[in-house]
Amino acid sequence: MRSLEESLGYTFLNPDLLTRALTRSAYARESGIDAAGHMDALAVLGDAVIELAVLEAIIFQGESDKGTITNKKINTVNMVRLRNAAESLDLSSYVRWGKGERQMEIWTSGRVLAECYEALIGALYLDNGMDAVKSVLHASLIISDKKD
User: Please, what is the angle between helix 79-88 and helix 112-139, to 10°?
Assistant: First the structure.
């Protein structure tokens, strides 16, 4: 986990949040971890937090047209970009996968790795708020403070 924190440029104040963000529900079921110990809720939160940070950055950059803001948000917050951010952190090697997920290498297709990244962002938000999130999103090139 330390190497992930080094890659993030952030050390968790509550390491349990990081562990939870990296624990799939299948792994939790197989290991007897209760529902509060896996990533699903953090992924939902992370999705919302990422959208908020992206919208804030777009508006900060000077955009005021509702349609343009929406289009820029859609182009910024998408599965491919989030998945790329997760891959740049080698996130799949830190996630606690269920046996079937590991066997199928579920992280190689679909939205799964993007969801893991969302859970990580949700955990960051709970750990230290929006500044921590923005720092990681900047490093992942998801957001920028650069004005157009």
Answer: 70
Residue 26 near residue 96 (C-beta atoms within 8 A): no
Q: How many CB atoms lie within 10 A of CB 92?
A: 16
> What is the rounded CA–CA span in Å between residue 103 and residue 129?
35
Q: Which amino acid is at 87?
A: E
Burial of residue 38 (number of CB atoms within 10 Å: 0-12, 13-18, 19+): buried
What is the pTM assigned to this prediction?
Answer: 0.94
pLDDT tens, residue by residue, 91-145: 999 999 999 999 999 998 779 999 999 999 999 999 999 999 999 999 998 998 6
CA 32 to chain centre: 25
Please identify which residue in the block is written with the tokens 């500044």: 131
Which sequence positions are flagged as catalytic? 47, 118
The amino acid at residue 67 is G
What distances in angstroms separate CA 91 from CA 10, 61, 64, one per listed residue? 15, 30, 35
pLDDT digits (tens, 9 = 90+) for 68-79: 999 999 999 999
